[in-house]
């Protein structure tokens, strides 16, 4: 096979706890990742050179490009001396806490595995993904998973999210490193694991509101109050649970049913992006 096309999904975090800062500069966290049907598209084909194209002017073309980083790591790991052309069609907003960049690099790893017939299993691809970014291993398997460490230790969990999901991106870009750098840590000693809370209470929105938090909200809400306004508005229009995803700035709402989409769209500025996840 010399050409492959893959969907690259987004994710939300159903809760996020930050436990401590590590000696390597990262933080130990606890979260539940949930894959959502909001997709970028990636087309790849074997080429003479390594080439990258995208429809987005927000994606860097240099060393910090996670797709190209995935190519370098994959080629070095398997001794491949070749080229590949990548075309990325972006739909997941950049800097939103929805994991778009991590998902893209995971898709590139999976695509390269197919194109070059390496036969690497998910565990090996996840190991390579952890060299790119903390969220990348999750996207190798997707689904719903409990994540610990810096987010790279993944335990798939069986839990059905029984809601319609609405994601609102308020067109505010947030740097993950900036959020963690301004975070005031709080203690989680004595609390039940987030995995247990989510699994046992996913169908009890009152319990979710009481027990499931995102520690990064305080920082983002303080500097970007418009993000807090989005969360409040989602509750006003009928969400039974709402939370900022990851380091923001996207906020999701769980709805038991989504009525008129126009009503939801009208609740937010035309500068915002709203995504309806079935």
Automatic annotation (TrEMBL):
Enzyme class: transferase
Keyword Lipid biosynthesis belongs to the record: no
E.C. designation(s): 2.7.1.148
One GO BP: isopentenyl diphosphate biosynthetic process, methylerythritol 4-phosphate pathway
Keyword match Nucleotide-binding: yes
Location of the active site: 11, 135
InterPro entries in the record: GHMP_kinase_C_dom, GHMP_kinase_C_sf, GHMP_kinase_N_dom, IspE, Ribosomal_Su5_D2-typ_SF, Ribsml_uS5_D2-typ_fold_subgr
Domain (GHMP kinase N-terminal): residue spans on this chain: 65-143
Binding-site positions, ATP: 93-103
Family: Belongs to the GHMP kinase family. IspE subfamily.
Source organism per UniProt: Candidatus Kryptonium thompsonii
Domain of life: Bacteria
Pathway this chain belongs to: Isoprenoid biosynthesis; isopentenyl diphosphate biosynthesis via DXP pathway; isopentenyl diphosphate from 1-deoxy-D-xylulose 5-phosphate: step 3/6
Alphabetical keyword list: ATP-binding, Isoprene biosynthesis, Kinase, Nucleotide-binding, Transferase
Reactions the enzyme catalyzes: 4-CDP-2-C-methyl-D-erythritol + ATP = 4-CDP-2-C-methyl-D-erythritol 2-phosphate + ADP + H(+)
Protein name: 4-diphosphocytidyl-2-C-methyl-D-erythritol kinase
Pfam families, alphabetized: GHMP_kinases_C (PF08544), GHMP_kinases_N (PF00288)
Role: Catalyzes the phosphorylation of the position 2 hydroxy group of 4-diphosphocytidyl-2C-methyl-D-erythritol.
Listed GO MF terms: 4-(cytidine 5'-diphospho)-2-C-methyl-D-erythritol kinase activity; ATP binding
Domain GHMP kinase C-terminal: 206-273
């Amino acid at each position: 096979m010399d050409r492959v096309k893959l969907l690259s999904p987004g994710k939300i975090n159903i809760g996020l706890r930050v436990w401590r800062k590590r000696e390597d500069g990262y933080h130990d966290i606890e979260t539940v990742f949930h894959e959502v049907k909001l997709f970028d598209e990636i087309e790849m084909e074997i080429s003479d050179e390594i080439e990258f194209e995208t429809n987005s002017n927000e994606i860097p073309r240099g060393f910090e490009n996670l797709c190209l980083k995935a190519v370098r790591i994959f080629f070095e790991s398997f001794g491949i001396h070749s080229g590949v052309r990548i075309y990325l069609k972006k739909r997941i907003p950049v800097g939103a806490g929805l994991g778009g960049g991590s998902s893209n690099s995971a898709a590139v790893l999976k695509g390269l595995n197919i194109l070059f017939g390496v036969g690497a299993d998910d565990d090996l691809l996840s190991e390579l993904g952890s060299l790119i970014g903390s969220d990348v291993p999750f996207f190798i398997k997707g689904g719903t998973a409990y994540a610990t460490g810096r987010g790279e230790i993944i335990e798939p969990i069986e839990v059905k999210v029984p809601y319609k999901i609405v994601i609102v991106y308020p067109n505010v870009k947030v740097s993950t490193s900036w959020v963690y750098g301004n975070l005031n840590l709080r203690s989680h000693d004595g609390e039940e694991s987030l995995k247990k809370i989510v699994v046992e209470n996913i169908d009890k929105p009152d319990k979710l509101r009481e027990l499931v938090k995102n520690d990064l909200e305080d920082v983002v809400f303080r500097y970007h109050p418009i993000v807090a306004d989005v969360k409040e508005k989602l509750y006003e229009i009928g969400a039974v649970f709402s939370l900022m995803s990851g380091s923001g700035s996207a906020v999701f709402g769980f709805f038991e049913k989504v009525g008129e989409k126009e009503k939801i769209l009208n609740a937010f500025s035309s500068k915002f992006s709203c995504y309806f996840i079935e």
